[in-house]
Amino acid sequence: MGVRPLFTVHLDRTGHAAPGLPPGLREAYGGDLTFPDPPPGRPYVFTNFVATLDGVAVLSVEGGSEGRVISYGSADDQWLMGLLRGAADAVLVAAGTARAEPRHTWAARALRHADAAAIEEWRILQGRPLHPIQCFVSASGSFPEEMAVFGRDDLRVIIYTTRAGERPTTRLRDRGADVRVFERDSRVDLTAVLRDLKETAGVRYLLCEGGPSLFGQMLALRLVDECFHTVSPRLAGLGDAQSRRPLTGSQTWPPQETPRLQLLSLRTGIRDPDHLFLRYRVLNRDP
User: In this structure, what is the dihedral angle of CA atoms 31, 92, 152, 111, given to the nearest 10 degrees?
Assistant: First the structure.
């Protein structure tokens, strides 16, 4: 383990009822990390995104990694991402995010996390698998066969798609993917996906890492309980819709229906003190 603590805590009103993190991780985070019980019929859903000060979450850069460009390569942001993956039973991402990072796996170790071993030990002590379930949603069922998540004995992969997208995923079944069809109006039925994850895969806590379109859809369906949001000390501008996208994609709300959030915690990094690490509870959500 490296330098401790990693974060300065300016506000924490999460109201932890019992210890969640083991001592080393709790010291690094500057406090505990726990979640309420899941609502009936679906997992407790929390998201994790980094965006610029003006709200850009996707910034296409030729030959570069858009996430690292937006986060300014923040080591603290990467550390928190790994911790949240460790807290999740499953990680949900859209096909576009998966296609952008075909060699990635959505687990702490994939980030070369300094505390990956401690996170994995924490999971084992809780009786959970070494890595969270890798869940993907795609209406088209289009995934690169060379994606690193396929064909691994230590990763469980579930793909949710439509009837039209089922055929393109046939070859992925042979590489260990569990393909499931939940469709509504030619799109993946996200409400049914969450219900299925809880009922058939035992997922109680689900981390969504995007991208923005998926996040916006889940917010619109009132399926998000909490948002972990890193504000990067950068400005990108929103003028070019082709190369940059806001945090919630193209989703919009009437003024009286905008999602309302309650700030639960505010941290800054010891190594990256100009980043803000925010945790919000979504107030207008459905159980």
Answer: -40
CA distance 274 to 269: 8
Measured CA angle at 258 (ends 255, 261), to 5 deg: 140
Q: Model pTM?
A: 0.94
**Strand 7-12 versus strand 261-269 pairing type:** antiparallel
Q: Locate 266 and state its tokens.
A: 């505010």
Q: Which two tokens stand for residue 121?
A: 């030990």
Give the whole-angstrom CA distance, residue 232 versus residue 203. 31
CA–CA dist 97, 91 (Å, integer): 12
Largest Cα–Cα separation, the chain: 51
Distances from the Cα of 90 to the Cαs of 157, 208, 235, in angstroms?
A: 10, 9, 32
Summarize the confidence of residues 43-64 as an average pLDDT: 86
Question: Quick one: pLDDT at residue 65?
Answer: 46
- Show the domains of the chain with their CATH numbers: 42-251+263-282 (3.40.430.10)
Nearest to 172 by CA among 211, 204, 141, 210: 141
Residue 202's identity, in one-letter code, is G
Alpha helices by DSSP H, listed for the chain, are 23-29, 66-71, 75-87, 95-100, 116-125, 163-166, 170-173, 190-201, 212-220
Q: Which amino acid is at 151?
A: G
Shortest CA distance to 192 belongs to which of 137, 128, 132, 248? 137
Tell me the CA distances in angstroms from 215 to 45, 127, 150, 220, 223, one per residue in order: 11, 29, 24, 9, 9
pLDDT in tens, 7-34: 999 999 987 656 689 999 999 999 999 9
